[in-house]
Amino acid sequence: MYEAITVARSTAAAFCLCATVTAFAAEHPDFTGVWGTYRAPGAAAPVRGAAQAPLPLRSVAKAKIDDYHALVDPTGDTPNGFCLSTGIPNTMLGSGGYPMEIVQHDDVILVVFEAHAEIRRIYLGARAKEEDLFPDRNGYSFGRWQGDKLVVETTHLKEAVDQGRYPHSADAKIVEEYSLVTNDDGSKILTANMTMTDPKFYTQPVVAEKKWQYLPGVRLLPYECNEPTWDAHLENLREQRSGH
């Protein structure tokens, strides 16, 4: 009889714990799906290359950026042209019109960009050890839930004077706040508010906002950055073989 009561209590406790965990998990929105840049109804399409508000750059940062553009602008070279990622934050805030897919797990959120088939990982579990981290174009992103908002902090970035809109030093820290709104018609809007703090490059924090709309039934298309280079190489080999 005692054993039966103990088992019953254990089962009830396990059920309560499971229910609590499920209820807690349900508090977090699900960002899973394919997302494209949001445009408000009736809003004009953005104009590529349109003038933008100046950034509060320090003189030393502006000198670095100007020197970079003096080097590459005459040739039209870009990191993307050499199959390199744009890097954070421009990858998230720009995207060049390409969609992205979010795959959400309890311990990590994967952001898969159609452009360059790039993957960004936002870790939600235990933080990585400092000795295991190194500078990268996308840095190291660690997220935490604050109610129904996801707060992501990105550090360990490489200096990036080649980012078209948000160049930064290696000491930049980027904090993004993600929130999801589901409208009455079932459409979903994902909003990110970014604050980039970088005293080496800027006189004050830089803020920006980006919105995406959920694209049901859409899948990402293959993106092979190196394929044109390979095709051109094969053609060159054929020409050499034929003696032309």
List keywords for this structure.
alpha+beta, globular, 24% helix, 244 residues, 9 strands, 26% strand
Largest β-sheet summary: 9 strands, mixed, barrel
Name the structural class.
Answer: alpha+beta
Please state how the strands of the largest beta sheet are arranged side by side: 1-2-3-4-5-6-7-8-9
End-to-end span in angstroms?
94 Å
Radius of gyration: 23 Å
Contiguous uncertain segments of 5+ residues: 1-25
Q: Quote the beta fraction.
A: 25-35%
Helix tally equals 4
Q: How are helices and strands ordered from N to C?
A: HEHHEEEEEEEEH
Mean pLDDT: 86
Number of DSSP-assigned strands: 9
Helix content: 10-25%
Indicate the overall shape: globular
How would you sum up this structure, described in words?
There is one protein chain. The protein is of the alpha+beta class and 244 residues long. 24% of the residues lie in helices and 26% in strands. Strands 1-2-3-4-5-6-7-8-9 form a 9-stranded mixed beta barrel. A hairpin with an 8-residue loop joins β8 (188-197) and β9. The longest helix is centred in the N-terminal third of the chain and has 25 residues, at 2-26. Residues 1-25 have low confidence and may be disordered.
